[in-house]
Amino acid sequence: MSVETDPVEQLLPASLRAALARRELLLRRPVAGARHGVHRSLRPGVGRDFRDYRAYVPGDDPRRLDWRAAARSQRLVVRQTESQEELTLTLIVDGSGGMSYGEGTTNKWGRAGTLATALTSLALRQGDGVGLVIGGQGEVDGQLLEAAARRDRLRTVAERFVSREPGGDCPWQPLLATAAARLRPRSLVMVISDFLDPGGLELSGERFGEDEGEDDGEDRRADEALLRDLGLLRAAGHDVVLIQLLHRDELDFPWDQPRVLQLEDPRVRRPVVEGSGAGMRDDYLARLDAHLRWLEQGCERGGMLLVRSVSDDEPAGQLLDLLARLAGAPVDAVMHEGGGESGRGSRR
Amino acid sequence: MSFLAPLALLGLLGLGLPVLAHLLGRERPQTIRFAALRFVRPREPVVTQRRAIRDWPLFVIRLLLLLLLVLVLARPVVGSEAAVAVVAEPHDAVILLDGSASMELRVEGRSDRERARERLEVLLDALPAGSRVGLVISDPEAPEVSLRELADGAGQLRAAVDGWMESDERGPRPGGWSLAEALPRATAMFGAGSGARPRVLYAIADPTERGLGSLPPVVDGSVTVIPVPTRGRPDDEPPTPPEHVGIREIGWEPAPELDPRAVRVRALIRRHGGERGTLGVEAVLELDDEEIGRTRVELEPESEAQVEFTHTLTGEREGVRAQVRLVGRDDDPLPIDDRRHVWLAVSDAVEILVVNGDPSETRVNDEIFFLSTALANSDLGDRLTVRGLAPDQLEQRLRESGEDPLASVDLLVLANVRALDPALVPRLAARVRAGMGLWITVGDRVAAADYNGRYGELLPLLLREAVYAGTAPGRTEARSEGVAPAILSHPIFSSAPNRGDIDLDATRTRRMFLLEPDPRRGADIALAFSSGAPALITRELGRGRVALLTTTIDRDWGDLPLRPGFVPLVTGTVQWLAGVGRGGKGSVVGVGEGKTFERAVPYTVTTPSGEAVPVTPPDDGEAAVFMATDEVGHYLAEAGDRGSDGGDGDERAASFERFVVAVDARESETLPTPGPSAELSGESGTVTIYEPRWRELALLALLFLAIESAIRGWKGWQGRRRPIQ
Fold first, then answer.
1. What is the DSSP track for B123-161?
2. Same domain, A108 and A200
3. Same domain, A47 and A117
């Protein structure tokens, strides 16, 4: 029972940990950490791998003189090595009501916690700092935003996911603004959300007009605002990874029946929609497909990595896929092919 | 109001179903908290408003429709008061159905006949299995179903009753039997020895005098009579039927004081029942379907009033079809008696032949002086033709072949005449039977033995002997005898216009004939002596009437002719005997009764509907009888052998016979009369008879269905039209 109550055990089962045991969280580009780490640094520094030679200038550590090279070139040459620096991983998690969907292991919030703790675990194992900020219930929870490489960070992160119930709306603008202000340079920013309905708080209220077309415009503006904010992060030199966590129901809309459905907005922003499932399905799938394609294209344009995962897929596979993508694996495997079935994980 | 199937009312709970479907059913769709709600667009934008009822009128109508259907299924009934006792063990059941005209009475929109049909249905359903069932309808022409097993008998009964009730020609009509008259036919159906099974007679009839009221309390044989009233409970007082108005009698008389051809038609209108207040009734006299006059009377409840029309006939015709009918009584519950017919005739002279048995040179001593003087001064004076003959002359003329001297005589008076030649008496008797009146007054020349021997069949009572008053033991001090007050109920006096004038109290009679009592002869005493001996006694014989005055009509035996009441007495007697008021104008035949023609020749009868029906005598020498008298109205019978009779004018005139078929006034009597109460011995059950009301509700439901369809169709049409705009 104690296993169940331990948040780390709960979110990160032993099988998953075993699958991740020998993995590393690696970026394909240099990092700019403050301390020594495992990542290739933007700067030359103390490391094992040869990087370059340069002329000796007074003040260089004489130990770094390469005597053989000096002998060949008749001048003092300093050997530069690749620096191994730490990476700062900042998790920005959508804690809105939209993440609460799903039963048992397919619960989106639970899966978000699993992904977050797994990434935290990987990062901590290689000494990287991890920060976490959650937006939900209309507020920004930034207590864990300051990156830390302490071992207890894993527990606190896990506890944060277990103790918190997703609900309300996610204030994307304040959330990103809070995170952006305190990010370390060249951080790895992972945004975990379903990116289905990011309409922020500032959009609530009168935006539910009679005209649906206008409604669409408002929603689209909210999407664009989110991507723009994320693009600003990217422009600031951070690596931005969008982990789109979807539930199978959201992709397939399985209620293909004449029975009347009453659909409520978990973010408590939109009015209740009633109608027969069969009558709504085709329309819904077409709109969802359009949105997903738009999101992919937006990420591609903004140089952001979009990784889509479905909450009933194997978490280990998802993580491995995510790691591969971070390390530079080709994108096509995870490209969304459209339709309900194609969102399935790309690792195979 | 109660329900035969009250459990079906539970179906009213089902009324909530559409409400639930409209409201709650839509309240509980599958609720999903769906993150991608922004991509969901309901196809019908109104779907969220469905929770409210969109179409109130349609909804209400459907609810009402369901309500009505449930109510119909619950079989609502009213009048749970009527309960019929049914013998519980298998038995022989004969159902006696009242076919009389009063069953046409409409109460609350349905006639008693329909009610009787429903009661028959309930009764058939309630009879225990294994019973035998038979049917008798109290109409001689109605079908009858002999006793048979219930299984197949019930269907035959229903078919017979339905066929009878729907038949135009042989269906229900006035003139049926009263229930008591039909009883022997019903009890005969049980047969002689049907064993130990109980015999039960269910009499379905209305609670009137000729219906259940006519049933005797005890029926011979081991037959139990269970009255099944069409209205009300068997054991309670019958409910009061709605009032109706009918013409009870119609008559006419010449009005010579106005015009030689004037007639006065009188009709007696009766208001049956009624609560209070006066009811204005308008009556119309129509001659040959042409309205002649119209009058109005005010009627108190349960009273009658006479209307009188005066009219001068034109033309040479002998018979004029006249009818009096009530107008403005379209809602009368019993319309059969709202019109009555009569034949009018211009010539209404009464011919009286007086045979003077004791003529005298001195007029005062002449036997018929007082009689002829009284007649000359009576109201009838202008219409009477009085001829006198001596007995010898009468005998001689009767013996002569050729014209019958009595042919045109309405009344023959034999005043103190010795008995006629026995060979001539049968001709006299035949004339009397054919309608002639005969008035015999006695005197010294009348011998009891001769009279009894020759006129025995004519006399109201046989003569015993002539006695002097006061010769009875102990009566020596009085040598004369007075006359008791006239029996005003006798038709002689009852038709007299001023009955109070009949003052004969001071009459002193010294001598009189005593008579042999014989109840079988059906004689009526009109006037009696103070000792009780009959003074004027009458009898109807065939279509004729006979009167016998047991003292002289002159002053020989008493001073009767000197009394003030003598003139009205003579007038009334002559009127009654001569049939004034009924005679020459044609007779009245009740519906369904046979009309016997005067002569034994074939006749052709023209019915009110214009149909010519030939009637032939059954045997030579017997008069023909016309039976098809189902229709009320004027009938004209024409003897078919005019040519062969060689006839002159008189013959031709006599070859027509006019008669009117009328409804018996008793049949329109709807006064509630309770029947005998059923005494059931042994095991019995009670079946409650209800008056169903679900048919009306079913019709209403159909109406709502039509409205619902119309509304839906209209809305659908509007819905189709809208996209075009």
1. HHHHSPTT-EEEEEESSTTS--EEEEEHHHHHHHHHHHH
2. yes
3. no
Domain extent at residue A215? 7-30+87-346
Q: Token digits for B468?
A: 């002097």
| Tokens representing residue A271 in the block | 């009015």
User: Quick one: A124 and A43 in the same domain?
Assistant: no
- The residue length of chain A stands at 348
**CATH assignment of the domain containing A173:** 3.40.50.410
Interchain contact, B41 vs A197, CB within 8 Å: no
Burial A189-219 (b: 16+ CB within 10 A, else e): bbbbbbbbbbbbbebeeebeeeeeeebeebb
Domain boundary among A85, A104, A123: A85
- Taking a C-beta distance cutoff of 8 angstroms, is the pair A198, A171 a contact? no
Q: DSSP code of B484?
A: P
How many other C-beta atoms can be found within 10 angstroms of the C-beta atom of residue B609?
7
On whether the CB atoms of residues A96 and A109 are closer than 8 A, the answer is no
Per-residue pLDDT tens digits for B190-243: 776 556 677 888 888 888 877 888 887 766 667 778 888 887 766 667 777 888
Residue A155 lies in a domain: yes
Give per-residue pLDDT as tens, A160-182.
Answer: 999 988 988 888 888 999 998 88
Secondary structure letter of residue B277 according to DSSP: S
Answer yes or no: is pLDDT of B680 > 80.
Answer: no
Given a contact cutoff of 8 angstroms between Cβ atoms, the answer to whether B85 and B680 are in contact is: yes
Tell if the CB–CB gap between B34 and A196 is shorter than 8 Å.
Answer: no
- Mark yes or no for CB contact A101/B38 under 8 Å: no
- The confidence band for B724, taking pLDDT boundaries of 50, 70 and 90, is very low
**In this structure, are residues A335 and A299 in contact, taking their beta carbons and an 8 Å threshold?**
no
Give pLDDT tens digits for B605-651.
888 888 888 888 877 667 778 877 878 888 888 776 544 443 333 33
Q: Would A2 be classed as within a structural domain?
A: no
What is the arithmetic mean of pLDDT over B573-581? 73
| Residues A189, A81 share a domain | no
Residues of A whose CB is below 8 A from B44: 275, 279
Segment B315-340, tens digit of pLDDT: 655 678 888 888 887 778 888 888 88
CB-based contact A280 B42, cutoff 8 Å: yes
Domain match, A46 and A91 both: no
Average pLDDT over residues B464-485: 75
Instruction: Please indicate whether, in this complex, the C-beta atoms of A261 and B36 are within 8 angstroms of each other.
Output: no
Residues A137 and A81 placed together within one structural domain of the fold: no
- Taking the Cβ of residue A220 and every Cβ of chain B, the question of whether any pair is shorter than 8 Å is answered with no
Position with higher pLDDT, B188 vs A93: A93
**Do strands A129-136 and A139-148 pair parallel, antiparallel, or not at all (unpaired)?**
antiparallel
Mean pLDDT over each residue of chain B, to the nearest integer: 78
By CA distance, what is B48's nearest residue in A?
Answer: A274
Q: For chain A, what is the domain count?
A: 2
Q: When comparing pLDDT for A339 and B65, which is higher? A: B65
Chain B positions touching A219 (Cβ under 8 A) are: 38
Q: How far is CA B536 from CA A120, B438, B546, B548, in A?
A: 145, 13, 10, 6
Using CA atoms, how far apart are residues B51 and B21, in angstroms rounded to an integer? 10
Q: Tell the burial category of B121 from Cβ atoms under 10 Å away from its Cβ (0-12, 13-18, 19+).
A: middle
Work out the pLDDT band at A209, boundaries 50, 70, 90. very low
A235 within domain boundaries: yes
A241 and A316 share a domain?
yes
Task: Say yes or no: A13 and A61 in one domain.
Answer: no
Q: For residue A1, is it within any domain?
A: no
**For residue B417, with 0-12 CB atoms within 10 Å meaning exposed, 13-18 middle and 19 or more buried, which class applies?**
buried
